[in-house]
Design brief:
The complex is a heterodimer of chains A (245) and B (233). Chain A has 245 residues and is mainly alpha-helical. Chain A is built from 11 helices and 2 strands, in the order ααββααααααααα. Chain A has a single domain, classed as MetI-like (MetI-like fold). Helix content of chain B is 81%, strand content 0%. The radius of gyration of chain B is 23 Å and the shape is flat. The chains are: A mainly alpha (245), B mainly alpha (233). At the A-B interface, helix 4, helix 5, helix 8, helix 9 and helix 10 of A face helix 3, helix 6, helix 7 and helix 8 of B.
Chain lengths: 245, 233
């Protein structure tokens, strides 16, 4: 049987989706965990891990970027953050965390992914806020707005397209990073690939690759649609928004 | 009994393993990076020029490269491994593909950004299409090309480590081995080498870019001020 046929067989076997014993397995301490032999369970785990990482990064990076962008300070810092994160291999951070007191497993992955999710959100929030036209700010000041009102009612709505783009980039990147969890004994869809390589079942490796690639492409497409929706209606036909799309 | 010492950094580890382990992994890492970027440049240039010359191909080429970039490296290695086997070839193909995407985009953007007046002037001087490309369009696109080259190189250095999946990850191999044997010094050393390598290659390309584009050099502050004073008079 060729590799492609094996992959097809793997993908069309119902047990591989639902798991031989359901999508959860009991753990020794009486709890439960996602079953490692079910694509659905691994997929749900994958999404939960990605969601956790993006949420942690967003909770810190978004307010920080919005604030720094409003006061227009720290631009160099945001550039350095994104450059360093590009040179830093994901695997390095992942193995460093797994070997530290955080330990093996999903926590190390979520923290590492959150750190890599940080720069795009920060940079885009900063750029979106600080790029607001000086004339617009002037007009807001002339209307007697306080600094807080200007930030929340004028600058923030104008920054929404860039902020949304930042979240899309970050989320797609996180969904693409989480498969590495399999290398540090974590869960998620990478497990399918890693297990396939370890047991030399290349049909399963190919199937895993197809699933992970498909999940990434679908996430990107879905967020692309969402991104268009969150842009305030008044801005949609504005030339300025084009740059963010 | 106390747990054995597991420091994050150890000169002893570096001294004892420098010759065989560290230099070996570092050499493989550099070799893979340079080879991948070189091959990617060789393919990206004609592709980008084609996209520029034949506008009908531009959309598909850019769309294809964009979609490919969304596919995680981990998945790409998994898609390739069944056909190209475990090891160097698979990693190299994956690396070339990602570098290619960054380069094609930057070269196309650079070529599109050439001032139409400059092209017009060259046309007026009777430049042929090829001469225009070599002596007008490409030099004008150099800043964007070098930016792409730096980006591609830095991300390739980081990406090599994912090659661990198929057993050929350069310094990533050391990180992974350090993790398996719970040896922190090994992980930290390979991480620092990896980031350092990216930084050095980035700086080298920055200087190479300055040499290749003398017109972008602004010179020292004093020279700039003097030039300004001269212009003011």
């Amino acid at each position: 049987m060729s590799v492609v046929e094996e992959a097809w067989a793997y993908l069309t076997t119902a047990d591989n989706w639902t798991g031989a014993n359901g999508i959860t397995t009991p753990t020794f301490d009486g709890g439960w965990s996602w079953a490692n032999d079910s694509i659905i369970a691994l997929g749900i785990e994958h999404m939960l891990m990605s969601f956790a990482a993006v949420s942690i990064a967003g909770l810190i990076a978004l307010p920080l970027g919005v604030f720094l962008g409003h006061v227009r300070k720290g631009g160099t810092g945001t550039v350095i953050a994104s450059n360093v994160s590009r040179a830093m291999p994901t695997l390095a951070l992942l193995t460093l965390f797994a070997a530290s007191s955080i330990g093996f497993g999903n926590n190390a992955v979520i923290i590492a992914a959150a750190i890599f999710a940080f720069p795009p959100i920060l940079t885009n929030a900063f750029t979106g806020m600080s790029d607001v036209d000086a004339d617009v700010r002037d007009a807001a000041k002339g209307l007697g707005m306080t600094r807080f009102q200007m930030a929340t009612k004028v600058e923030l709505p104008l920054a929404v397209p860039l902020i949304a783009a930042g979240f899309r980039i970050t989320t797609v990147q996180t969904v693409a990073t989480v498969p590495l969890a399999a290398l540090v004994a974590g869960g998620g869809l990478g497990v399918i690939i890693n297990e396939g390589i370890a047991t030399q079942r290349y049909g399963q490796v190919l199937a895993g690759g197809i699933i992970v690639a498909a999940v990434s492409l679908v996430t990107d497409a879905a967020l692309g649609r969402l991104q268009k929706r969150v842009i305030p209606a008044q801005l949609r036909h504005d030339g300025r928004v084009k740059a963010a799309a | 009994m106390d747990a054995p010492d597991n420091p994050w950094f150890s000169w002893q580890y570096i001294e004892r393993n420098w010759d065989e382990e560290i230099v070996g992994a570092l050499t493989k890492h550099i070799e893979l990076t340079l080879l991948a970027v070189a091959i990617a440049v060789a393919i990206a240039l004609p592709m980008a020029i084609l996209a520029r010359r034949v506008p009908r191909l531009s959309g598909p080429i850019m769309g294809f490269t964009g979609a490919l970039y969304t596919i995680p490296s981990f998945a790409l290695f998994a898609l390739l491994a069944p056909f190209t086997g475990i090891g160097r070839t698979t990693v190299l193909i994956g690396l070339v593909m990602y570098a290619l995407l960054v380069l094609v985009r930057n070269i196309v953007v650079g070529l599109e950004g050439v001032d139409p007046n400059v092209v017009d002037a060259a046309q007026g001087l009777g430049y042929s299409k090829n001469k225009m490309l070599l002596s007008v369009e490409l030099p004008n696109a150099l800043p964007s090309i070098f930016a792409g080259l730096r980006l591609a190189t830095v991300s390739t250095v980081a990406l090599v480590t994912v090659g661990v999946v198929v057993g050929y990850g350069g310094l990533g191999q050391l990180m992974f081995r350090g993790l398996q044997s719970d040896y922190r010094a090994q992980i930290m050393t390979s991480t620092l080498l990896c980031v350092g390598l990216a930084l050095i290659l980035d700086l080298l390309l920055l200087f190479a870019g300055r040499l290749a584009m003398p017109w972008t050099r602004t010179g020292s502050r004093r020279q700039v001020r003097k030039a300004r004073e001269r212009n003011a008079v």
